[in-house]
Amino acid sequence: LSAWSAVPAGPPDPILGVSEAFKADKDPRKINLGVGAYRDEHGKPYILTSVKKAEELVTSSNPDKEYLPITGHAEFTKNAAKLAYGADSIPLTQGAIAVTQSISGTGALRIGGAFLARHYPNAKIIYLPTPSWGNHTPIFRDSGLEVRGYRYFNKETVGLDFEGLKADLLAAPEQSIVLLHACAHNPTGIDPTDEQWKEISNIVKEKKLFPFFDMAYQGFATGSISNDAFAVRHFVAEGHQVALAQSFAKNMGLYGERVGAFSLTTADPEEKARVDSQLKIVIRPMYSNPPLHGARIANAILANEALYGEWETEVKGMADRIISMREKLYNILTHDLKTPGEWGHIKSQIGMFSFTGLTPAHTQVLAEKAHVYMTRDGRISMAGLNSGNIEHFATSVDSAVK
Ligand code: PMP
């Protein structure tokens, strides 16, 4: 008898399963709007020019392949923290931010979950927005935290349920942990306004909640690195201690290189040193130390003024192309096709995704009849649309809802 004869088959991953179905479809009109990876105007994966140049700089310097320290490439993590918190951030200039390299954003969240499960001195309950990125629940549950939800999405308005959000955070036990998407909320594409962030900060303060920011899309929301860091920087300026997961998958297009960082703001350099030592103890038994290559590429961009400028322009280019697809889709649906329903949210939502309001039944018809693939919740990756396929997408949606 095999040791694994009683292992039950698990369900397929809801997002990666969409890509499988897409691959199996042989129709030339097929469109994959499932996975959140940027595509250029020809629907092709896009390697940033700044990344290509940075990679050339790295390889031409003939670097060795020795192990990195447990917390990774020190110059990269310093620059990653500067990117998120801002060069003039008080804890940064005081040397009070503990930061480690991570296996992209997922790894940062997992290190954070494990660190909080071990060292957070209060109730180990984390509140996630409903809905949230599908991997958040398993990441924090497997880290040993109790996962609960706070209201985020209002189905009626296809907008933020701000009253529900505030009521749920006010009702949470004091000192609970609250996960906040720093910008470009996945899957809804709906972010709080700056004024709403200020109110959230006040509630977090009043209830002594611990804010854990997930920033997987810095630059992708508005096209500006600093605008997209507003929430994180505001919370830190307001005196909150924060945890922060950063990913360079989307904004540098380094998906498979797995480049990220996890950081905690601490009281002072002495406390930071103690926190650093415990981050190492969390990480060492997981994977010893992180991969080299992607961190070197990201650092070559962050550390070089000219490349940094070029990168910022490219990030804005990606964000702008997505925004132009939103405009175009909205115009075709409302003006050209007069598709039943209200589609204003397509334009007002932000970042890589749009929560279309399409039902699971619609998504099934779209896949079977129109070769258009998306997750069952009606979320589409706007980056999968381009001038070559947007008409087919819009007319397919039009027939699906009529
Ligand atoms: N957080 C959110 C909200 C995300 O959407 C993603 C990517 N889909 C991640 C974290 C992490 O992705 P990665 O591990 O590829 O950086």
From TrEMBL:
A GO molecular function held by the record: L-aspartate:2-oxoglutarate aminotransferase activity
Gene Ontology cellular-component terms listed: mitochondrion
Q: Which domain of life is it from?
A: Eukaryota
Q: Which residues form the signal peptide?
A: none
Which GO BP terms apply? Answer: L-aspartate catabolic process
Keywords in alphabetical order, please: Aminotransferase, Pyridoxal phosphate, Transferase
Q: Which residues form the Aminotransferase class I/classII large domain?
A: 29-396
Family as reported in the entry's similarity comment: Belongs to the class-I pyridoxal-phosphate-dependent aminotransferase family.
> What is its quaternary makeup?
Homodimer.
Write down what this protein is called: Aspartate aminotransferase
Q: What lineage does the source organism belong to?
A: Eukaryota, Fungi, Dikarya, Basidiomycota, Agaricomycotina
